[in-house]
Amino acid sequence: MALEFERRRNSGIAETDLDAKIEQQRRAWEAELDAQLKRAAIAHAEHLERVIKTQKQIHDVENEQLVQVVVEGNRERDRRPLPLSGNKFDRQIGMHSSNWRPSKKTLKSRAAKDLENRRAKIYWTICQSLTDALVSGGTAGAQSQKTPYKTTLKEIALLKQLTENDTFAQSVCAHFPSGAIERGVPTEQGLIKRFDRVHKLARCTAQIGDEGGTLLRYVASWLQSLVTFELPAAYSADDRLDLNRYEPYELLARCRHFVQQKDLLNAVRVANLIRGESARIFSDWLNDAKAHLEVRLLVELLFAHAQATGIRTTY
Q1: Mind telling me which InterPro entries this protein's record contains (predicted)?
Q2: How much is the average pLDDT of 273-286?
Q3: Residue 251: partners with Cβ closer than 8 Å, 6 or more residues away
Q4: Could you tell me if 197 and 207 are in contact, meaning their C-beta atoms sit under 8 angstroms apart?
């Protein structure tokens, strides 16, 4: 009896140490990822600033060239001898008016392009804000101590107004679920934090089937979860799973691995294979993750379209 107690105590200590090491490693990975994201954001902001400065310089040079061409044309026409018949003053006014018509059209065209380019930049900024909100519930630079579980999609209404003449953007905006816009969408960070609690409960009931079980069976499943360890493994989305051989602890370990890698898509795929009481525990989290992935796909489509629009309107 004492030997069994000592073995259980040593197993508990080993599991605690392993969890602590895994948590420490996960925090180190998250810190490194945050640093990389911040550096990428700074580099992107500097790139945008350089592009805007270059566009302004090109715009100023082209305007100067346009004004110079118009002025030279007017000077050349002024040097030409005019017929003596008719009113000389009226002829000069008509000549100058005809000279300015092409330049007016050019300036109007340039103003329209500038407006379209500014709209594209606003479009891109809104999509970036939506992406940040889906990940952490706010902007990337927000220093929030508590990550909200859900985020609102109030920017969708602004996108519809901004892209009222864009058929593709309007079509994508129309596919956003009304419930997601009204009640919000779970964030990636919120789903990851909630997964830890769901995962622990699912491990405790991994041996309970669809038909349920007695209290003794629940206790046995809980005890088995205590002596079953999740060793670190390099799981891949390309791994083939044998559906005829159901291994709940392996599926839970795979699901946890993908969640830690922030790969919610493959985590959902694996979670769909879980059966029994664990599947019932996972059901709410699974529905929220599917809603998040659905909205995120639409936002990524808009974001890619915004980038393409920005490139197309850059001159």
Answers
A1: MIC60
A2: 86
A3: 241, 270, 271, 273, 274
A4: no
Q: Which of 304, 259, 278, 219 is nearest to 26 (CA)?
A: 259
Q: Please enumerate, as own/partner, the contacts of 123-127 that have beta carbons within 8 Å and a separation of 24 or more.
A: 123/159, 123/162, 123/163, 123/169, 123/306, 123/309, 123/310, 124/303, 124/306, 124/307, 124/309, 124/310, 126/155, 126/158, 126/159, 126/162, 126/306, 127/159, 127/299, 127/302, 127/303, 127/306
Cross-strand partners of 185: 151
CA dihedral angle for residue 186, residue 188, residue 194, residue 195, rounded to 10 degrees: 130
What pLDDT digit, counting tens, does each position of 245-263 carry? 778 888 888 888 888 888 8
Residues with Cβ < 8 Å from 106, sequence gap 6 or more? Answer: 66
Judge residue 228's burial from the number of C-beta atoms within 10 Å of its C-beta, 0-12 exposed, 13-18 middle, 19 or more buried.
middle
Rounded to the nearest integer, the mean pLDDT of the chain is: 75
What are the pLDDT digits (tens) for 67-123? 676 666 666 665 655 454 445 555 555 555 555 555 555 555 666 666 777 777 888
Tell me the whole-structure pTM to 2 decimals. Answer: 0.59
